[in-house]
Specification:
The chain contains no helices and eleven strands. By secondary structure, the protein is an all-beta fold.
Length: about 120
């Protein structure tokens, strides 16, 4: 199993910045991909950014050029630097780890952290 603990988040003004961090523990060696997802009120959870162990990153179009995901394999952490924040970035952000071995793969989720951007 993998456990995820998030930190960061909070309140920011439009145009401001926030940084989210997530620490993983447990079956670390089985983690293939880590990422951040978000869920706004009344909306489905969506992928924000993911990153592989080799550093290959993927972003949802709405955050490209504003958010940067990074991963420290030695410290088992993943971070999301969020710049140029917009009110529509307001959501609960969840850390995710995709882990396992062929043919069994699993998803682990953090508890979620609130990000609120005021206009």
């Amino acid at each position: 199993q993998v456990q995820l603990v998030e930190s960061g988040g909070g309140l920011a003004q439009a145009g401001g910045s926030l940084r989210l961090s997530c620490a993983a523990s447990g079956s670390i060696s089985s983690i293939a991909v880590m990422g951040w997802y978000r869920q706004a009120p009344g909306k489905q959870r969506e992928m924000v950014a993911t990153i592989t162990g080799g550093g290959s990153a993927n972003y949802v179009d709405s955050v490209k050029g504003r958010f940067t995901i990074s991963r420290d394999n030695a410290k088992n952490t993943v971070s999301l630097q969020m710049n140029s924040l917009r009110p529509e970035d307001t959501a609960v952000y969840y850390c995710n780890a995709y882990f396992g071995t062929v043919p069994q793969w699993y998803n682990a989720w953090g508890q979620g952290t609130q990000v609120t951007v005021s206009s």
